[in-house]
Amino acid sequence: MRQRMHIPDHSDAHVTILHRPHATIQAITRQLLAIGLQVSQCWPEIGPDGLGADFVFFDVDMGYDAQFPWSPGMAPMPLIAMIGSEAPGRIEWAIKQGSDAQLLKPVGDSGVYSALLIARQSFEARKSLISENENLRSRLAERQTVVRAVTLLAARGNCQSDAYGQLRRMAMERRETIEQAARRIVARLADEGESDERRNRS
């Protein structure tokens, strides 16, 4: 049985439209107001109100990086690209910005609601993927720290297996995880190694 997609309630959400004055703005605004959203428009850059927006519609045709106060692909809210020209360079730029949905111009009397839903789902999926990647990188770094701690302990005359057992006992004695114990051992033995090196030089 397939799980149904959750349709969030967007009532009272704030939408910023980053577009020069144009009939496109009127068409989008009508649809957003009918849904119950708050709308503001700005050009050529996002103002203070836009920083707290729940969604941002932005013009691809005349857009440029400096319009956004964040790095490309790092928007803190869903982005919806408004595309009139399908020139490859413009499409590539929109993708680089991390657009979560698109709306083709000229905008008629429909399309905005579905763009909002798609953008929200895409944005949440992207955030989840970023979080998973960060978690994996953190776990890999922790594993490397454990390996380094075992290596340092083994260098003091133990075999790898005994060194790992020693690390586990240290963690149990202090009631901490092996990763925490490894960080402590690496920091302590690294400091001792630097001290020994300074003494040998003097």
Account of the protein in words:
The chain has 202 residues and is an alpha/beta fold. It folds into two domains: 14-110, Rossmann fold (3-Layer(aba) Sandwich), CATH 3.40.50.2300; 137-201, Winged helix-like DNA-binding domain superfamily/Winged helix DNA-binding domain (Arc Repressor Mutant, subunit A), CATH 1.10.10. Helix content is 53%, strand content 12%. The chain contains six helices and five strands; from the N terminus they run E-H-E-H-E-E-H-E-H-H-H. A five-stranded parallel beta sheet has the order 2-1-3-4-5, sandwiched between helices. Strand 1 (14-18), helix 1 and strand 2 (38-42) form a beta-alpha-beta unit. Helix 4 (112-154) packs across helix 5 (160-174), helix 4 (112-154) crosses helix 6 (178-201) and helix 5 packs across helix 6. The radius of gyration is 27 Å and the shape is elongated. 25% of the residues are buried. The model has no long low-confidence stretch (mean pLDDT 85).
